Amino acid sequence: MRQNEMDRVTTTIDQDVKVGELTERRRGRRDSGPSFRLRREDELTAFRVERRSMRPTREETSVSMLTDTYGKGSYLLPFMVKSVSMKFTEYIGSHHAFTTEALLAAADSRGAAKQQLKEAVASGSVERVRRGLYVSNGGRFEGAGVDPYEVVAALDPDAVLSYHSALEAHGIAHNIGFECRFRTTAARSPFSFRDVRYVPHPQADGIPAQRVHGRAFGSVLVTTREQTLFDCLKHPEWAGGLEEAVRSLSAMPYLDAERVASLAITDSASMAARVGWLLEAKREAWRVPAEAIDRLRRACAGTVSKLDKRAAATRGWSGAWNMRLPETEEEVASWAR
Question: Strand locations in the chain, DSSP E?
Answer without folding.
Answer: 97-99, 126-130, 133-136, 160-161, 179-184, 191-193, 196-202, 209-214, 218-223, 305-306, 316-318, 323-325
